[in-house]
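User: Fold this; tokens only.

Assistant: Input:
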Amino acid sequence: MTSTNDILGTTTTNSSTYVFESDGSIVYPLSENEVSSGVSVSGSGVVWPSAAVIDSGKPSTSDLKLTIKADGETIDTTAHITVQGAGTQTVTVPAGTYTATVVDMTEAFSIEGITASIEIKTWLAPGVGPVKDEVLTDDAGASAVSASEELESFTKG
């Protein structure tokens, strides 16, 4: 999957690869460029369970090892990933309107005693894949969308 972002006149294009395993799970391998500069990931990446498990609404957990390098220091931590199906919704994006499966993913981690979490909500359309995602952050008890992506166009190939 290729995404192009235009932020304040600067255009960047990133390519992401989803690996569909024989058991139906989906692995999203992460590179340093996809996480953040100075952060490396060890392991296979984020693992989503099979569609049957997502459809059941049962949470699935996995761990992701992170190494953060900043200001000459190296910090190792583990992100605890929880993936859970949240039913279906109709979603409209520039590429069209889809009935999509909603997947909620939470990444929780601790760095030097400070605990943080990130929630990512993804809409998956059958035969298409991810059509929208939102990164949600919690500020003083109020959840807000801090980043989002929408499918601009789709060509079945």
